[in-house]
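Hi everyone,

Forwarding the result from last night's run.
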Amino acid sequence: MNARQAVAPRPADAAAAFVRPRPVAEPRLRLVVIHHAGGSAAAYFPLSRLLPQDWELLLLDLPGRGKSHTQPPLADMARLAAWTADRIRPWADGVPLALFGHSLGAVVAHETARLLEADGVAPAWVGVSGRAAPGHRVPDGLPDTDLPDDELMRRLALMGGMHPRIDELPEFRARFLHLVRNDLRAVAGYRPDPARPPLGMPLTAFGATDDHVAPPATLPGWVAQTRARFGRLVFDGGHFHFLGPAFPDFAVRLVQEIHQALQPATTGRQVFQPSTV
C-alpha cells in the first residue's frame, strides 16, 4: 500500500463543502477556490475545463449557500477562516495545495493559509484577487451593509457578477441579500494584526484596471504579506473582469503563477510586478 492509499478517509463534512467538477485519483496539485461575497462555487465552475489534467479543482461553498446551504452564514472573518481551514486540512495529504480567492474569498484564502501554515501544512501558493492589501482603506469599496435593500442591490449590480433577473425572484433575492450582508460584515470587520510575520509561501495579487473595490495602486502592498516570491497581475476590466469570455485567458495566467510557485526556490527573494495583461 502506498503512502497516499494509507491516508485515512476524509470526514464527511470536509468533502461535503466542496464541488469537485473533475475528481483526479492521484493529482499533482489541488487548487482550492474560494468565492466572492454573495457568491458560490458555481461561478468558478468553468475553471474545471481550463486546468491541467493532473490538477484537481476544489470549489468551496462558504456557509449559507450551495453545498453548505444548511450551515448558518458567518459574519466574522476569524470564524470564516477557521471553518475553511477545518475543511481544507483533511485534503493536505501530501499533495501540494494552492489557494485562490476573489474579493471576500481573497481575505478568507489569506487567513486560511496562515492557519494551515501554523499547523505545518502550508499551501504551496496563495492567490488573492479583487482585494486591496491589508491596511489599505478604499473609500469607494464594498457597499455599506446597512444600505436599504434596493440601494444595496443597485450598488452590487454596478459591480457586476450578478444574475440579471434576480429581481424577478423575490424569495431568492431576499435570501441573497441576507447572505451578502453577512459576507460584507465579515469583510468590514476584518482588522488583521499589522505586526504579524509574513507568509512563507509564494503569493500573487490579481487586479483589474477599473476595479474600484481594489484599485491597482492598492495591490503592491500585498508584497508585505509574504517572504517568498510575490507576483502582481493587472487585467483590463472591473471587479469581475475574469467572468465570462475572459475566463480562459485569466486561467492561463493563474496556472502560470502556480507553476512558477512549484519550481524549486531560488536564492534570494523574487518580486515580480508585470505590466497590465
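Residues 108 and 274 are 25 Å apart (CA to CA).

Cheers,
N.
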